[in-house]
């Protein structure tokens, strides 16, 4: 099955040549998502919880544009700039995955935007229920 870009209505610019999501054979791959406005400026500077919420809402919009829901998420890759924000990120994250939790990993690293505190990339299976 060919790959189909997934671009939610109202999406802003991207930082590089990529789509917010891509779907193939019922699997949605959501690109690494930062808390960026439509002009690629970081929002909620200094607030890891608010950035996490913003990121997860963006991810949710990609999955919904592909016909899925957050309960279809099977894997998350989480990147944070400081372990001091780990608890705040997890508190928000848990509200988006209240039932069975998807697999995930979390690493500390530098991110492409200086004020970004968290980035999440997601995989969801929406085509086969």
UniProtKB/TrEMBL annotation:
Bilayer-crossing regions: none
Keywords attached to this entry: Hydrolase
InterPro entries assigned to the protein according to its UniProt record, in alphabetical order: RutC, RutC-like_sf, YjgF/YER057c/UK114
Similarity section: Belongs to the RutC family.
Protein name: Pyrimidine utilization protein C
Organism the protein comes from: Reyranella aquatilis
Annotated gene: rutC
